[in-house]
Amino acid sequence: MLRRAASIISSPRRWIWRSAAIEESYKSSKPLYENFSPESAPVKRFERLAEFVYESQSQAAFKYGMVCGCPCASLGSEMAGQEAGIRAKFEDITRRFERCYESALGDMVADKTLPKTTGVGSKVPVAA
After folding, report:
1. All residues at 6 or more sequence positions from 122 whose CB lies less than 8 Å from its CB, including other chains
2. Which residues contact 107 (CB under 8 A, 6 or more apart)?
3. pTM (global) more than 0.90
């Protein structure tokens, strides 16, 4: 068993295992993003996001004695520059999150909670 684990870790295709770990991390937070629905008020969506992160980190702190952070972000940011497969998986998951945030922010602009100059979906701020 140990020999098998060592061969997986040192395998040139180990990014596949790491990519699967990133996807699994995303799936653990997927229920939140399924509830990040346009049917809810946009501010409420972000409040639920904060509650989810707080709850999951509180549970981890209780279980492990420390806050563990996000395995998807940790592994993705550490390995993305080294392995194209990890970078592609991390970008895929990041885009999924971005769509949720952009939708809620766009709704906040539409209901005038945020100004039109917010620049939702743009990498450059919109001029006033």
Report:
1. none
2. 38, 42
3. no
* 107 within domain boundaries: yes
Q: Nearest 5°: CA angle at 75, between 13 and 53?
A: 140
* 86/126 Cα distance (integer angstroms): 32
CA distance 40 to 51: 15
Inside any domain, residue 90 = yes
Phi, psi of 27 (to 5 degrees): -60, -30
User: What length does the chain have?
Assistant: 128
Vertex 32: Cα angle to 26 and 34 (nearest 5): 90
95-108 pLDDT, tens digit per residue, is 888 888 898 999 99
Look up the domain containing 49 and give its range: 43-113
| Total structural domains within the chain | 1
SS3 55: helix
